[in-house]
């Protein structure tokens, strides 16, 4: 800090001081050091949460209250004492000159510190951005106006009147950056860039009727003595400093408020975009305005986002392209005409695509649960118990067959478990499971004959694992056998011209009345799976299409999932 302050001594010797002793000029910067140190202490220690980047109104208020005033009084006290000691300032003028000096320092801190903090990253800014271009254009306009005012051209008054709304618009458009830059340029309205003489000589000349002898004696004989308050008010710097300070403390919060609103709007846009949503408005004169242009492009030129007869509600809005996710529009009518017709409406559009994704995820989880339940149902004890009972009988009668039976049972269980890791499996793989199951039943002693008539085109279909097995198991369990305990089951699969799979399992028997035959858990789970996976495109029916035969029909429409 000391190095930085003393580097400024050279220009101060050349431009600001005329006849001040060198020792005094070397000591005066200590006032600035104390001023800076006290401001830092107040902001970082007293207000511990202070952010030096001035990103919130609290930080700006803390800066305006703590940084300028006490440090400036300290700096002014030190500087005025040094000037009095060097006989550049009469003792009787110490107080009012000190107050004016402190006010000038405070206004300088208020003006320059936010300017430096706001433009600290000037070299990394995007110079083609809207904020920078507006800041540059406004600053150029304000500088030109000040030049005209200083030249006292005939249009000076009109320019001064025009200056105010332009500055306010520029600050609102560019935020704190524009506010600090414009206030800095406006400060040249109050102060002259090229004073006619150095500061200490102007200080001597300001107290007319005095000379160095009077300064040495500390007297001011022959002149009426005004009160310190009157001296402060009569000093021309007082009004200039007051106007500049008021200008800064008015425009800086306005600029920061504009930055806060823009940041909040950007955050809202980010949230809206992530949720595929958009705010919209409608008025009788201009029609619809949808904030998100990408969503607006997906809708028709004249969308229907609200109902005129309902002041508050929601409506489903279909996009222009078929197959795209629809939107849900919520609205509230804010202004009505005398006849009750809507004049202004505000609403929000949000895509149902996210809701569809959630529903799809829930459906996937439900399918996984059904699949696990299905696996437990397929491998429920009745099948295992029957197989193990048959195995026990074979062990004592035909050990070789028992060994073969054990191998087939292990293959069947392994295949059944493996299929449960997938939601859909090829029909050909499903039929292989069915053949293994029938082989096990035959080795266990059941007299079964299965006839498979499968179109080659139908094998391309994919369907829930063990779905055909469920129909086949149901046929084995409930089918009618001949006198010699034989039963013939037909499995037919074909693809229709409409790319639909029709699979039939035909068994001899009669379809009992509803409620007289207990509905198997396997069939219920299969229906649930088909509903989850295919909705209306997957169905199962049990009918007695001809006397003495029951047909279980499975219909699945081919799409990208099943093909």
Into which percent range does the helicity of residues fall? 55-70%
Mean pLDDT: 80
**Assembly state:** single chain
Strand count, sense and closure of the main sheet? 5 strands, antiparallel
What topology does this entry show?
Elements: H1 2-7, H2 9-16, H3 22-27, H4 29-46, H5 57-66, H6 69-85, H7 94-118, H8 130-151, H9 156-174, H10 176-186, H11 199-206, H12 212-217, H13 228-234, H14 236-274, E1 277-283, E2 287-290, H15 293-298, E3 312-317, E4 327-336, E5 342-351, H16 353-378, H17 381-397, H18 399-419, E6 425-426, H19 427-443, E7 447-454, E8 462-463, H20 467-478, E9 486-495, E10 500-508, H21 521-534, E11 538-546, E12 549-557
Parallel strand pairs: 7-9
Antiparallel strand pairs: 1-2, 1-5, 3-4, 4-5, 6-8, 9-10, 10-12, 11-12
Helix pairs in contact: 4-6, 5-14, 6-7, 7-10, 7-13, 7-14, 8-9, 8-10, 9-10, 9-14, 10-14, 16-21, 17-18, 18-19, 19-20
In short:
The protein has helices at 2-7, 9-16, 22-27, 29-46, 57-66, 69-85, 94-118, 130-151, 156-174, 176-186, 199-206, 212-217, 228-234, 236-274, 293-298, 353-378, 381-397, 399-419, 427-443, 467-478, 521-534; strands at 277-283, 287-290, 312-317, 327-336, 342-351, 425-426, 447-454, 462-463, 486-495, 500-508, 538-546, 549-557.
Structure description:
The chain has 563 residues and is an alpha+beta fold. It folds into three domains: 2-10 and 19-125 and 186-266, no CATH class; 275-351, Beta-Lactamase (2-Layer Sandwich), CATH 3.30.450; 357-557, Heat Shock Protein 90. The protein has 21 helices and twelve strands. It has a five-stranded antiparallel beta sheet with strand order 2-1-5-4-3. Strands 7-9-10-12-11 form a five-stranded mixed beta sheet, with helices on one face. The protein has a two-stranded antiparallel sheet with strand order 6-8. A hairpin with a 2-residue loop joins strand 11 (538-546) and strand 12 (549-557). Helix 7 (94-118) crosses helix 10. The longest helix has 39 residues, at 236-274. The two termini are 76 Å apart. 27% of the residues are buried. Mean pLDDT is 80; it is low at 4-10, 12-17 and 209-225.
